[in-house]
Amino acid sequence: METPTLSQLTTRALRYEELAKDYSSLVAILQPRPIHSLDQFERFDVAARSLAGFNLTPDQEGYLDALSTFMIAYEDEHEDWG
User: Fold this and answer.
1) Cβ–Cβ < 8 Å for 6, 30
2) Which parts of 1-82 are beta strand (E)?
3) I need a surface site. Which of 27, 51, 71, 72 has the fewest CB within 10 A?
4) Is 12 exposed, middle or buried (0-12, 13-18, 19+ CB in 10 A)?
5) pLDDT by residue (tens digit) across 59-82?
6) Which among 24, 25, 23, 64 is positioned nearest to 46, based on CA atoms?
7) In which element (H, E) is residue 77 found?
8) What is the pTM of this model?
């Protein structure tokens, strides 16, 4: 299976089957870290939506939790952006 790229995260939700199962491979695609722009938020959102609703591995769950934490912090800081 070919590893998705960051540019794919900006254009479409990835199919769950395309995503890595281990944390280090997920981080290689998109590092969970504080979000400073709407563009970054949207990439995190695409990654999170690609994982949501599936029977995740423990590493995928941890990755989704990390993404969600930074997304919530960004939303809280930019409540009037939407």
Assistant:
1) yes
2) none
3) 72
4) exposed
5) 999 999 999 999 999 999 987 755
6) 64
7) helix 58-77
8) 0.83
